[in-house]
Amino acid sequence: MLNVHVRINDAATGQPTPCRLRICDQAGRHYAPLGFSPDFPRGRNEDVGGRVAIGNEIWFYIDGWCEIPLPSGMPLVIEAWCGPESPPLRKEVTLAPGQMALRFTVERSRDEAPPGWYSGDVRCHFLSPHSALLEARAEGLSVVQVLAEETTFAAQDGLSYRITPNLLAFSGQTPLLERPGTIVCVNTLNEHPVLGRLALLHCHRPVFPLTFGGTESTDDWSLADWCDQCHRKRGLVVWVDALRPDAVVPGEGWADLVLGRVDAVEVTPETIRPRDWYRVWNAGIFFPLVGSSGKDSNRVCLGSMRTLAHLPPSTPFSLDSWIEALRSGRTVATTGPAIELEVGGRQPGESLDLAEPGREVEISATLRMVQSVSGHLEIVVDGDVIARQAGTEGGTKVRAIRRFDESGWVAARFVGANIRNQFAHSSPVPVSIRGQRRRDAAAAEYIQKQIQKTLDWAMTHGRFEKPRRRDQLLGLLQQARDALNAG
User: Which of the four CATH numbers 3.10.105.10, 3.20.20.140, 3.40.1280.10, 3.40.50.300 does domain 110-333+440-487 have?
Assistant: First the structure.
């Protein structure tokens, strides 16, 4: 075994480039850089960062070079990954006796990505900000939001404590760490065990309390309180683990979504549920989709689901401009592929208003990706696929002409053979006729039922010490029901 110097260079600059690295032999044995071990904890909040286990594959994050003890005279497989916008590197090598260096070159290119698009992960936990920065650069991410979250820590003294990792690193509207093209911020995840979870991004200071309810406190608060305080601080509210059809109590998020207090809905690899989004859009309630990995252990890759946000022409990339792109709905939630959608000259983040029914609208979607992945690019109108084109590489296009006799919406999506690893979905483009948005009665009735379940919980199971706080929550839920009835 020799300590071999491994270097991965960017083909454009000739300089070392951050990447995710994997080296193994034919028997499947993995070799770790000095300072690491191929055996590491993989549970939630267990020394998260710097390495990741994807199935049986062990990967390590490096900033472009490392030293690894490797055997000579034995075939080795070396792989490097620099994000979905770059072709992966895979080489088979055999070290000669005494060989102590390996050099490889990767193509780090954004040529296949639409101009003005920047990717980010809107939620991860427990990584140190420096680990998040390294992993973001290796995974091709422009923005990473590390969210401080209250959690339980079992100490060696036999007691359990409530802790909030990374809270002291809170940065809000200012990048905590930054390298050219990459920003790391620390914000908060706020949670009630029944009413739901919110990612509060881009606040100038934390919104407390971070948690309420459960067995340790009363329910004398609401998600709406968090939303309002976040917005007063110029923040962005993302509904986490949203629209769950299997929830016994659907949560307050439904009402806050109807009332416009929620700015965006999160998509993770575990929560790809287009039918649920479509049902809400059919009710005339439109929201942007944002992607996140939800990374909280060394089993999850940062950016495994990500947000592509489009900045208007001549708008320079910054944390502020990226957040405003999310707020406006110029987004795609994706595992990697990029989708451009145009509806009668409008794009996600804009709406199309027709002067009268019966107008025909030209719709086009373009898929761009470096990786060769099998799947279909589809145009979706009011929940139905109206056009489809097989797509295996960047540049796939699909077009359609749609006659709108009533108001509706349009989105585009890419679905591969493995939806958790091969998926992309744009935010919707609402299409209104004479200013009237689509309103499907069955969809509105479904949302009514979800809000009613939460209202029933508040009246029968909520633990309120202050009656006015119960009344405020009931009033909020009823306000949302009235808004649905009013159309």
Answer: 3.20.20.140
Q: Which residue has the tokens 């070079």?
A: 65
Return d(Cα 326, Cα 236) in angstroms, integer: 8
Q: Is the pLDDT assigned to residue 386 strictly greater than 60?
A: yes
Condensed to tens digits (0 to 9), the pLDDT of residues 253-302 reads 999 999 999 999 999 999 999 999 999 999 999 999 999 999 999 999 99
Look-up of token digits 């039922």: 449
| DSSP letter string, 438-484 | P--HHHHHHHHHHHHHHHHHHHHT---SSHHHHHHHHHHHHHHHHHH
Find all residues with CB under 8 Å of 26, minimum gap 6, and list them: 74, 75, 77
Strand extents, DSSP E, 292-417: 306-310, 331-334, 338-343, 352-354, 359-368, 375-381, 384-391, 396-404, 408-416
Q: Tell me if the domain spanning 2-106 has CATH number 2.60.40.10.
A: no
Contact status, residue 412 vs residue 377, Cβ threshold 8 Å: yes
Going by C-alpha positions, the residue among 61, 58, 10, 68 that lies closest to residue 38 is: 58
Q: What distance in Å separates the CA atoms of residue 473 and residue 486, rounded to the nearest whole number? A: 20
Please tell me the distance from the alpha carbon of residue 128 to that of residue 64, in angstroms, as a whole number.
19
